[in-house]
């Protein structure tokens, strides 16, 4: 795994707010300088780097007189509006010292769930890399609402890593890896490598810092997204950035558990929000998960939600577990009359236009690797 990291041609690096700012909330120039120097060093050896940088809200706290991160959305958006410019200006100056340009991309969930916007973001990132600029990506906190947020830049980083076909994802934080228990607990030890994140049993439910918005749980969620798409992940402390990017024995490395899939399926699985749920029987679960088959009306037992043809919906096992997500071919008004009927019955009673899959396998992303 470490050798694979050393040979990576393109990496995505995510850094958290607490690793870029002072305890009071202002930008820490020394921390940003160390990160920039590390990225420049890696680029000098031919590796492309996309930087996912938190810190906009944190950078705007002190200038606006906030003593801590505000709870209300309007104040967070105001802080982000002030802080984003300060943050990018700092990056531009630091990279500029090395003769490098930076390009800023501010994204919301809608930008990666709408296919047209997704393609536009991908095109911009690709062009910036071709032009030897350093793409700096952040969530657009100035316009994002609670309902359309990534929640934390860790998830955004995993989605961008999929988008640009990165060879590795580096998550930089204020902790030097994943531990068997909380790092402050006596006897807690750093986990050097995780071979299968699905088998991991570590309690990570602890809030992040007062400056940032995430914690270890969100980092593991991001690692799960990336590794399931065939992308190795390293979790390390921000001051270990260079060692982490060059495959040194720091932090925790998460091995890929899945294969690279078409971007459309990755987008389907992790960047969409389901508009409804299709509860299916055990036979349909096996067909979808094990045989990678299309979902037919005969296997659906219940329809939940309000959606139209083309919307993303979750496919749910009898146990309540979501096993897949896909683009549905019929609306929530049409489906109830189709449940449990095979193709012949659908054609006979409803017309030949109903003699087709509810969710075609080419528009269906399986979300579990095995049935238990």
Automatic annotation (TrEMBL):
Q: What is its EC number?
A: 2.7.2.11
Tell me the InterPro entries matching this sequence. AceGlu_kinase-like_sf (IPR036393), Asp/Glu/Uridylate_kinase (IPR001048), G5K_ProB (IPR041739), Glu/AcGlu_kinase (IPR001057), Glu_5kinase (IPR011529), Glu_5kinase/COase_Synthase (IPR005715), Glutamate_5-kinase_CS (IPR019797), PUA (IPR002478)
Gene3D superfamilies in UniProt: Acetylglutamate kinase-like, PUA domain
Protein origin, superkingdom: Bacteria
GO function terms (MF aspect): ATP binding; glutamate 5-kinase activity; RNA binding
The PUA domain covers which part of the protein?
A: 276-355
Pfam family, any one: PUA
Q: Does the keyword Transferase apply?
A: yes
Recorded catalytic activity of this chain's protein: L-glutamate + ATP = L-glutamyl 5-phosphate + ADP
Q: Where does ATP bind?
A: 14, 173-174, 213-219
Pathway(s) per entry: Amino-acid biosynthesis; L-proline biosynthesis; L-glutamate 5-semialdehyde from L-glutamate: step 1/2
* GO cellular component term, pick one: cytosol
Q: GO:BP terms for this protein?
A: L-proline biosynthetic process
Q: Where does substrate bind?
A: 54, 141, 153
NCBIfam families in alphabetical order: proB (TIGR01027)
Matching HAMAP family: ProB
Q: Would you identify the family this protein belongs to, as annotated? A: Belongs to the glutamate 5-kinase family.
Cited PANTHER family: GLUTAMATE 5-KINASE, ISOPENTENYL PHOSPHATE KINASE
Q: What is this protein called?
A: Glutamate 5-kinase
Recorded name of the encoding gene? proB
């Amino acid at each position: 795994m470490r050798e694979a990291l050393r040979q990576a041609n393109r990496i995505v690096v995510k850094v958290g707010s607490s690793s870029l700012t002072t305890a009071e909330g202002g930008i820490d120039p020394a921390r940003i300088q160390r990160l920039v120097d590390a990225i420049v060093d890696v680029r000098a050896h031919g590796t492309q780097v996309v930087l996912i940088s938190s810190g906009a809200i944190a950078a705007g706290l002190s200038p606006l007189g906030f003593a801590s991160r505000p709870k209300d959305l309007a104040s967070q958006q105001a802080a982000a509006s002030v802080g984003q410019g300060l943050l990018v200006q700092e990056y531009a100056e630091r990279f500029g010292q090395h003769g490098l340009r930076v390009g800023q991309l501010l994204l919301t969930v809608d930008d990666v769930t709408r296919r047209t916007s997704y393609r536009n973001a991908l095109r911009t990132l690709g062009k910036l890399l071709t032009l030897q600029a350093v793409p700096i990506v952040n969530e657009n906190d100035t316009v994002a609402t609670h309902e359309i947020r990534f929640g934390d830049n860790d998830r955004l980083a995993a989605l961008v890593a999929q988008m640009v076909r990165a060879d590795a994802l580096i998550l930089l934080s204020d902790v030097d890896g994943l531990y068997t228990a909380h790092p402050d607990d006596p006897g807690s030890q750093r986990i050097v490598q995780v071979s299968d994140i699905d088998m991991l049993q570590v309690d990570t439910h602890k809030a992040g810092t007062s400056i940032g918005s995430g914690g270890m749980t969100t980092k593991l969620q991001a690692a799960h997204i990336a590794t399931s798409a065939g992308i190795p992940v390293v979790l390390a402390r921000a001051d270990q950035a260079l060692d982490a990017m060059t495959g040194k024995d720091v932090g925790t490395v998460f091995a890929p558990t899945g294969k690279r899939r078409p971007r459309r399926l990755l987008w389907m699985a992790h960047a969409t929000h389901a508009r409804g749920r299709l509860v299916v029987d055990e036979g349909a679960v096996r067909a979808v998960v094990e045989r990678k088959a299309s979902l037919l009306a005969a296997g659906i037992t219940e329809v939940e939600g309000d959606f139209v043809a083309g919307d993303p919906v979750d496919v749910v096992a009898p146990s309540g577990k979501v096993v897949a997500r896909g683009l549905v071919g019929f609306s929530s008004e049409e489906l109830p009359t189709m449940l449990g009927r095979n193709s012949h019955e659908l054609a006979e009673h409803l017309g030949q236009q109903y003699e087709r899959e509810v969710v075609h396998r080419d528009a269906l992303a399986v979300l579990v690797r095995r049935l238990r």
